[in-house]
Amino acid sequence: MSSADLTSERDLPPEREASAKGDVAPERDGPRDTGMDDASLHRWLTRTWRTPPGIIGALSSVDHKVIARRYLVTAFLFLCLGGLNAVAMRIQLSGPQRGLIGPDLYNQLFTMHGVTMMFLFAVPIVQATGIYLVPLMVGTRNIAFPRLNAFSYWVYVSGGLFAWVSFALSMAPDVGWFAYVPLSGPEYGPGKRADVWAQMITYTEVSSLAVAVATIVTVFKQRAPGMSLDKIPLYVWSLLVTSFVVVFAMPAVMITSTFLILDRLVGTHIFNPAEGGDALLFQHLFWFFGHPEVYIIFLPATGMVSAIIPAFARRPVFGHLGLVLSLIAVGFLSFGLWVHHMFATGLPKLGASFFTASSMMIAIPNGVQIFCWLATLWDGRPVIRTPLLFVFGFFFIFVIGGLTGVMLASVPLDLQVHDTYFVVAHFHYVLIGGAVFPLLGAAYFWFPKITGRMMSERLGRWHFWLALIGFNAAFFPMHIVGLWGMPRRVYTYPAELGWGNINLFISAGAVLFFLSFVLFAFNLVHSALKGAPAGDNPWDAGTLEWATSSPPPSYNFARIPVVTNVEPLWAEREALPVATGLRVDARELIISTVAEAHPDIREKSATPSIWPLLAAISVGGTFLYSIFTPWAIVWGAAPIAVTLIGWFWPKGDPEDEE
Amino acid sequence: MNQRPAMDISGLPTFGHGPRSPTWWGTLGFMALEGTGFALAAGAYLYLATLWPNWRLSAPQPNHWPGTIVTLLLIVSLVPNHMLNRYAKECAIGPVRIGMVVMSLLGVAPLIVRWFEFPALNIYWDTNAYGSMLWVLLGLHTTHLITDVGDTIVLTVLMFTHHGYSGRRFGDVGDNVFYWDFVVLTWIPIYLLIYWIPRLG
Question: Which residues of A touch B93 (CB under 8 A)?
Fold first, then answer.
């Protein structure tokens, strides 16, 4: 007997035999959207899908758009904080032997800058963009596991607060964002600073992993009917591949930070060479995560580029299949590169050669992507607007970063410039060029969808040129000062070395770059309040998020679209084909098959709940307490269990029962 | 944007078992990431074991018997686990209730034996890195076991309430079966690593 038989009388296929044994699960039914007029449909769906009013209601929200907006705002605030860290460091370094910041605070500053930018800004903001856009782009009404998604936000924001409150109390981690042992170990890292690093990392990665699983399942199982694998938008592909990379990479950093806290808290010897452990093991485990991390940030950015370019080139992207395969190839190869962060540790030559080869190999699929984008632009009729300007900025900066990357992949050069400003320049070119510029383009591109208003184009152009000039002024000279031998993570340098002028120039560039973000923030706020109304599809783009109103209603789509083309809105300009037959009094959405996206199940999506917040509080409290005693895990288990049971226990809604 | 009805999906069922259900895929996702964690912890053990020529660092051999009993219990539990899966697919509430009680008991049993497994390692976590890794591996799997047994017990109670008799709950039972398989499967390599690899050297 197949489970297709387990439906109500009305739905049963005629050939169904009487169930030989056991019972058949009951199904209740409610009003459907078939034949319903638009006004009634809107009334029903609004009532069913709304986030409840009031503070408790807001804290209970499971709407992917609400959660994503919170994520985006929070990540932007962390970007500002991390940026202020950088400005403080640049002021200190603007001249030789300045006394503004001492070594202890400087150590905390560069550690917090790295931790904030990597764990509290970059990864969360690309995931948040996905939380907002993926369900819209695949044509569904909410992300898979909406409560898990809400939980992930509370974990993320409390983890970030934890790090920054520690900083305010001068107990922020001061061991660099990768916190190598033995410096961070029990012997050389007294106090609680390294513990803050370890627990904050483990805790916030729970959030990334939760979002990754929710994203994968949304893409696999909630795609609109007809959106077979070859019709999935490239942005969604990029988030899918990224989520897989997260699933296989993030556990490595959780294992690393857990081993570290065990060594520090209960006296294990995992990283202690005196008792049979090994310090390099830390680096292996960390970089097994740390290198894919770069691609976790970069791949969604390429997805954004692949969404922006066709909209402004006015033609479908060239080499869709090639781009998808490149994304997948980069995802795989990103796991074969971690040792190139460890060339200076005296590894066997053969191993180093292997990692040199694979580091160079990853340039191939990335190159394929760049050529496909250029071909799209070359063959299209490009309309130059701010989002596309940022894509051009991305090409320029990222290609330079890629070239220094190929240089650094060679062991002899790497040994020369290891831990110098050359490396600092390289990874800022890759990360800011590769991720932040596309992200800024994406902000201008999707802002109208999120707020219903356009951003100012004039301010956008000012922003772009200020950012491009400021960025290059700040980071290009770092290559040079790095080749001169200036090490990273020094809080000052003597005047005799002659690095003063170039550092002053770098600091001026950094201030300019910072100002570009001030302008961006002003543009965001001003446009959200006073921008020109956007309409549903201001760019006349082709993917499904533009088929609904701006901002989208709580239920995303009044009826689930049926997809016939990779750019569905360009293929169906007259009227969008839609599916009918979903219930309107319960949160129903379509579950489809993985490859072909045939509609398969009418599944209920979870209702709002306060329990994910309570669960995050109990998990967060346990992590905080565990900095001081291992017994926290024992005492924390009870509240965690209670809140999780509260979360999963059915409350009698149709969404819980059927 | 204008719309035109192109497909009627009103006849679709409201739940499905196995790979048809999103929860199954979510469970698979969590298995993948937890499995990666296990693999990396095991990798760390093997890394240290190959790094030090005198591995086991002159520690005594662990007593494998409690671990072996846990292994046998876990393997035996797979039989009722899969019978339960069949009942869940048939939406047979009576046998599912009995099966869930059995699986709760078969979850608690290895946990009791596990209590005796830690002292049988014959080394503490803070003696040396070998001891640390044994405790980490056993600790990881124990956490795994405790959370899944807790989950099973809650679901068992749920199945005896009026919430139990619904397609969604039968799907939950199916996913619980799936996850238990994973708990058993991850134990096998850890068991070999803890008790039999040290006997090789």
Answer: 22-23
Whether B39 and B190 have beta carbons less than 8 Å apart is answered as: no
User: Chain A contact for B25, CB < 8 A?
Assistant: yes
Residue partners of B8: CB distance under 8 A and separation at least 6: A34, A579, A580, A581
Q: What is the pLDDT of residues A458-476, one digit of tens each?
A: 999 999 999 999 999 999 9
CA B130 to chain centre: 24
Its ipTM equals 0.96
Phi, psi angles (nearest 5°) of residue A608: -60, 150
Give how far the C-alpha of residue B100 lies from the chain's centroid of Cα atoms, to the nearest Å: 15
Residue A303, SS3?
helix
Concatenate the DSSP letters of all residues of B97-147 into one string: HHHHHHHHHHHHHHHHHHHHHHHHT-S-TTT-HHHHHHHHHHHHHHHHHHH
Classified as helix, coil or strand, A519 is helix
Tell me the nearest-neighbour CA distance from A404 into chain B, angstroms. 31
Confidence of residue A652 (pLDDT cuts 50, 70, 90): confident
Question: Is residue B44 a contact partner of residue A619, using CB atoms and an 8 Å limit?
Answer: no
Which of the residues B4, B8, B9, B138 would you substitute to probe the A interface, choosing the one with the greatest number of A C-beta atoms within 10 Å? B9
Looking at the DSSP bridge assignments, the partners of residue A487 are A420
A17 pLDDT tier (thresholds 50, 70, 90): very low
Tell me if B174 sits within 8 A of B42, measured CB to CB.
no
**CB neighbour list of residue B105: distance below 8 Å, 6 or more residues apart:** none
